[in-house]
Amino acid sequence: MKGARSYMTLKELLDDIHSLNRELEKYERKFGIISEDFYQLYQQGKLDEGEFEEIQEFCEWAGIYQIKVKQEQKFRKLSQSFIHELQQAMPDSFRLAPRDELTEVP
């Protein structure tokens, strides 16, 4: 697609993570376990998937969880990079203030 963006702003990345968390919470409430534990069981093949609807839900849950983990990794990398920049500028202590700019995420 011509002219398509290949990055997300920091705000878009955070919005995406929060939206994914809301989706995961629906599954956690329905099945009574946190997504991280579900995903471990899913990956190990320890879940009796039962009916078609559950198989579909488990696949969707796992997919949403995988995307969330990747987005959090991107955010963690940006956060650590920002902290490193602050430490380089002010090694003894630094002031953490709200960031207004929108940062591009590759």
Secondary structure layout:
Elements: E1 8-9, H1 10-31, H2 35-43, H3 52-89, E2 104-105
Antiparallel strand pairs: 1-2
Helix pairs in contact: 1-3, 2-3
Could you list some keywords that capture this structure?
4% strand, mainly alpha, two-stranded antiparallel sheet, 106 residues, 3 helices, elongated, 2 strands
What can you tell me about this protein's structure?
By secondary structure, this protein is mainly α. It has one domain (8-89). The chain contains 3 helices and 2 strands. It has helices spanning 10-31, 35-43, 52-89; strands spanning 8-9, 104-105. The protein is elongated and about 55 Å long. The protein starts with 7 loop residues before the first strand and ends with a strand.
Short description:
This protein is mainly alpha-helical and 106 residues long. The protein has helices spanning 10-31, 35-43, 52-89; strands spanning 8-9, 104-105.
- Identify the overall geometry: elongated
Radius of gyration: 18 Å
Largest sheet: 2 strands, antiparallel
Q: Count of DSSP E strands?
A: 2
Q: How many domains, in number, for the residues?
A: 1
Order of helices and strands: EHHHE
Structural class: mainly alpha
Indicate the multimeric state. Answer: single chain
Q: Return residue spans where pLDDT drops below 50 for at least 5 consecutive residues.
A: none
Distance between the termini: 17 Å
Main-sheet strand order equals: 1-2
Mean pLDDT: 86
Q: Tell me the strand percentage band.
A: under 5%
What is the share of helical residues?
Answer: 55-70%
Helix run count: 3
